[in-house]
Amino acid sequence: MHLDEIVARKREDWSRITGVPSLGAARPAPAVPGTFAAALRGAEVSVIAEVKPKSPSKGQLLAPERAAGQARTYAAAGASAVSVLADTPYFGGSPELVAEIAADPQVTVPVLYKDFLVDVRQVELAHRTGADAVLLIVRAVDDALLKDLLQTAAGLGLDALVETFTAQEIERALAAGATIVGINNRDLQTFSVDLENSARLRAGIPAGVLTVSESGIGGRADLERVAGHGFDAALIGENLLGAADTAQALSALLGVTVGGTA
Ligand SMILES: O=C(O)c1ccccc1NCC(=O)[C@H](O)[C@H](O)COP(=O)(O)O
């Protein structure tokens, strides 16, 4: 199930939805613009840890009943932000899961709403969950819609992580006004992962724009490599979720041991 198929299904689903779905509960405090961006600044390289219950390439990664607690574990172990899948059919998440995590007082870090956005109403839905930021995938939309999504997010106080895979997509992201640009190491058509993609494309992003290397990042050596290429943050899912002890795996990745610095 590659990106084109996922995006086609999202378009079809949203063409049938009227209005913006209600989440059945009052959303928490309004989003504060810049919260997610601020969390990525400062540290040598920040980690956005992902709550991804399953994936098309790897199948089940996290038992559904453990998904909400996983965000707490990540926040306690030093993640700078958490990314939570809102997509149900392919990734096993939901907007309700994002809302539960965003409302959890023990999740003390910003929350990224992770879905395949093809309609501005999805940004409104993300806002209702209490998330701090949305992911926008350049390849999934045309330039006009990308701008609309970015402007809608900004109008609601949400930051946007704009995901790219090629130099041309980086240009499109910047032209649309992106201030946080992600470079995916996973080719979403073939699922092959190559960390060199981040290294190759990093120079195309000007100073002042926050940068995130996404996918396929494993141990401390990978994170150091990403930091060495000047990235502000790394988005990491599978390699943390596959560890026997995710808190310990994240601490090791960040170079800290419980109670001190490694
Ligand atoms: O993760 C997948 O298999 C996938 C398949 C199709 C479209 C998107 C997909 N992943 C989206 C992501 O952005 C990753 O979940 C994220 O970058 C974290 O990657 P990883 O650390 O490799 O889990």
TrEMBL record:
Pfam families: IGPS (PF00218). Its EC number is 4.1.1.48. The keyword tRNA processing does not apply. It comes from the Bacteria. The keyword Lyase applies. Keywords: Amino-acid biosynthesis, Aromatic amino acid biosynthesis, Decarboxylase, Lyase, Tryptophan biosynthesis. It catalyses: 1-(2-carboxyphenylamino)-1-deoxy-D-ribulose 5-phosphate + H(+) = (1S,2R)-1-C-(indol-3-yl)glycerol 3-phosphate + CO2 + H2O. CDD domains: IGPS (cd00331). Gene3D superfamilies: Aldolase class I. One of its GO terms (molecular function) is indole-3-glycerol-phosphate synthase activity. Residues 3-253 form the Indole-3-glycerol phosphate synthase domain. Pathway: Amino-acid biosynthesis; L-tryptophan biosynthesis; L-tryptophan from chorismate: step 4/5. It is an enzyme of class 4 (lyase). This is indole-3-glycerol-phosphate synthase.
